[in-house]
What we know:
This protein is an alpha/beta fold and 126 residues long. It has four helices and eight strands.
Amino acid sequence: MSSPKTIKTLLVGATPNPSRYAYVAAGMYTDKGYDFIPIGIKKGEVYGKEILDLKTKPKLEDIHTITLYIGPDHQGEWIDYLLSLNPKRIIFNPGTENPEFFQKAKAQGVEVVPACNLVMLSTNQF
């Protein structure tokens, strides 16, 4: 397992809404010292970080992990962009599982992890 400082995570589906799991995950990343970049279609901030606009497909580097908080019905237009970031792994949180995305990621050598990011963080399995 890498140290928290070396795992840059892209949190896809970020939101400033505290009742959403993506917001809770951002809080856990902050509390545990993990570097994360919030990105989504919602505008605003999460834990002091501006949410990047997913629609602009910003150029990002050194992304180790992508964690998804958008369902498969909303992933299609972003799959190629997310894979172009060359992540080492993608965490598919419950409700985000997508066989097509799994297959494309695995074909590119990306580790596919269907798991709950919150459980992984709270049990030190991240």
